[in-house]
Structure formats: structure tokens, C-alpha cells
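ARCHIVE CARD
Drawer: 12
Card no.: 0347
Subject: one protein chain, sequence and derived structure
Cross-reference: see card 0346
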Amino acid sequence: MSRNRPALTLLGDVLLAAAVATVVDRRPRDRRPFSVGEFATRVIGVQWRAMEAKLAAVDLARREAESANDEFERGPDPMKSIDVALARRAVAELEAAVEDDSTRQD
């Protein structure tokens, strides 16, 4: 048994973990017994961070396309350029964390 993985993952019961997360997530924030994000991170850890990094990359692509379109139509927008640059940095940090996680497991 791995020390870093909870019992739900060890048993291969990711569906149960998803059901638990769904039920807890439906409750009002102040009535949740635990953070669903932290639970997901503990249950599927590396996979969760990899998915989060991929979603951030998709959002970055959307922002870049939107920015390029707006720049074409209206001219450069410094605030939007800063927003895209910060999003690029966030994606790079997420991807580095995922890569770091994968090298630790090897």
C-alpha cells in the first residue's frame, strides 16, 4: 500500500470518491464538512493537478484568442496583455508542479 494515497484510491473506488465530492459540493459552503478541492487533491492528487493544468491551458488559449481578436478589431489593450501574461505564468507554474509530481512518483 502506498503511503501517499488514501484508501478510496487504493481500493480503486474513484467513483465513490466522486459521489462523496458531489454530495458535499452541493451543500452550502459554510455547511461543508471539508473542502471538495482538497479532498479531490488527496484522492486523485497528481491526476487532479494535471487536469487543472490542462483546463488552465485551455482557458489561456481562449484568453489569447480573445485578446488577439480584440487587438485586431480595436487595437492593443495593455490591461488585456497583462491579464494574458499573468495567465501564461499561472499555466507555466501549474505545468511545472505537475511535472514535479510526476518525477517524484518515478
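Annotation on reverse: Residues 7-105 form one domain. The radius of gyration is 18 Å.
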